[in-house]
Amino acid sequence: xxxxxxxxxxxxxxxxxxxxxxxxxxxxxxxxxxxxxxxxxxxxxxxxxxxxxxxxxxxxxxxxxxxxxxxxxxxxxxxxxxxxxxxxxxxxx
Length: 93
Prior knowledge:
With about 90 residues, the protein is mostly helical.
């Protein structure tokens, strides 16, 4: 029996982040998938989210999740920039 040589092939592809004007639609889409049509993030929170994540979807999802948790703990109906700051503080290494 002859041993086979397997080589690992690594493919790296860098996806650019969302543009600033794409982020609100991205958030609306993700929230619609979760079952809401409500405007969960106010405009200053969206801007801070963009600045903090450079529009990278994975980071957006993570920070947004923590910000929504902060808003819920605060009893707020909308995520604001203070909730975003709390989320960023929580995620800081």
